Amino acid sequence: MKKLFILAVMLLNFGAVNAQKIYVANSAASADVKVFVVDRESYADLLVFKVDRESYAGKNDGKWFFVDREAYAQKKIYTVDREAYADIKIFFVDREAYAGWKNRSKMHLLE
Known about the structure:
- This protein has 1 helix and 7 strands; from the N terminus they run αβββββββ.
- The protein is of the alpha/beta class.
């Protein structure tokens, strides 16, 4: 019984630590980070891959799982319409292997 309890605690902690859950906020004031979606990979600070399951999300490595409720999110983002207003520039990639930071000096914004 004790081993089962320890295993359950470890699995719960692993899931909480591992998932980067993102919520798209309705305003810049309620967001943690303002992002601008660029049209070229070379302009991006972060290459983002949208995963379809929470368990596939990474920890600050560009693999994002979008949640529909603010309470479930680790980070709240707001998409701005001008690059100058953004904290980070992102580009959506079509393969998980391509996800990741190109400008590591901005990693702290999503930790």
